[in-house]
Write a structure and sequence with these properties.
Radius of gyration: 15 Å
Helix content: 25-40%
Order of helices and strands: EEEHEHHEHHH
Distance between the termini: 26 Å
Number of strands: 5
Number of helices: 6
Structural class: alpha/beta
């Protein structure tokens, strides 16, 4: 059983981390383009793909139910608005990259909408995953990336191969994918 985590970036490209069920890092790739996903992802043969970004704009309003539910737990996240014209604003460019990543692999890994995640692409928010896995928000005054590395270590993932904060987030996404494959998952929000 293997899960591929993808951290989304605009100019830097995508960071990919492949984990197995034993929490071993099998592959790390940096600066991958969305176009390259159509070749790389099938070659890695993950059982699911966990992407750090939304799959599309909100259906209505200024945010999605998922984002509002996370805030109920004190987990801050960015809103995904419903207005596609927001794609012209530089801040939201990373979201459009995430949309493109979901689209690029959709034929082989369609977007998950319920049931088992095997063979699907899922949306993951690595910070929320770290909070759930740690059982608490990060302590104030601690560097978030260092804290996330410790969360990975505490869950059996050796973070020594991870060279950047983006790879740490990709590993957290992959670990979330492993948990989802094991059916140990919580999926807030509307399944659509």
């Amino acid at each position: 059983m293997r899960a591929l985590g993808i951290d989304v970036g605009v100019r830097k490209g995508l960071d990919l981390v492949l984990l197995d069920a034993d929490r071993r890092v099998h592959e790390t790739l940096r600066r991958v383009s969305v176009a390259d996903l159509t070749k790389i992802v099938p070659d890695l043969e993950p059982d699911c793909v966990a992407i750090d970004g939304p799959p599309g704009w909100a259906e209505s309003g200024r945010s999605r139910l998922t984002e509002r539910e996370l805030r109920w737990f004190g987990i801050q996240c960015f809103n995904t608005p419903s207005d596609p014209q927001m794609a012209e604003h530089p801040f939201y460019e990373w979201m459009t990259v995430a949309f493109s990543a979901f689209e690029a692999i959709a034929e082989r890994y369609p977007r998950w909408r319920g049931g088992g995640v095997r063979g699907h692409a899922i949306e993951v928010f690595p910070h929320a995953s770290a909070v759930v896995l740690a059982g608490a928000l990060p302590p104030s005054g601690v560097r978030v990336t260092a804290w996330r590395r410790e969360v990975l270590r505490g869950r059996g993932v050796d973070p020594s191969a991870l060279r950047s904060a983006d790879q740490v987030d990709a590993a957290l996404a992959a670990l979330t994918g492993i948990h989802a494959l094991e059916r140990r998952v919580s999926a807030p929000g509307d399944p659509r």
